[in-house]
Amino acid sequence: MRRNLYFFLIFTLGPVLGACMAFSPSEKPLNTVPMVAVGGGPLAEWGDKEPGGLWIASEEKKELLASRRNKDANLPGRVPAVPEIDFSEYGVLLIWMGRQPTGGFALELMADEAEIEKRTAVVPVRWIEPQKGAMVIQMVTNPFLSIRIAKGGFDQIAVVDPNGVSRVVVKTMEK
What residue spans define the domains of the chain? Predict the structure, then answer.
């Protein structure tokens, strides 16, 4: 009889207790959205001297960017094209590094999901800089990166470097 009681307790309470331990209050499940790099390069047209970003969440905003690209037809590739996107589910984050004195600078997406903290999507991006004394092309650059991000659960995007320093914050709400 006692043996049956032990088996009953192990097989009924064991999974319940295990599930409770797996979801302890100290470990909150993370809210994330998927993302993927869809473009990038050394020359972004719209970048000023400072780093910046732009959230494209509709066909209208994409067309506005395309019309800007067409104005600069004599500078092919300076304004990157936004790939075909289902804007009902995704938006595109365009970020640029700011004006740089040489080549060797770049931006690299470091994850395939953005964590959402207090309605801010946190996008980890590596800001690559050439080593001192490295041989690089001598031309002014403005590296950019295009990232497709699933919509939902955030009002702004913070682009952070590997040290957790926020480099760019972009509002995603249309006003």
Answer: 29-171
* Burial class of residue 166 in the structure, from the number of CB atoms within 10 Å of its CB (0-12 exposed, 13-18 middle, 19+ buried): exposed
- Averaged pLDDT of the chain: 80
> Could you tell me the pTM of the whole model?
0.75
The beta-carbon contacts of 80-83 under 8 Å, at least 24 apart in sequence, are 80/39, 80/40, 80/41, 80/44, 80/144, 80/146, 81/39, 82/56, 82/146, 83/38, 83/39, 83/146, 83/148
The vertex-170 CA angle with 169 and 175, nearest 5°, equals 140
pLDDT in tens, 8-34: 545 555 555 555 544 444 444 469 999
The tokens describing 21, both together, are 């331990």
Please, which residues bridge with residue 108 across strands?
126
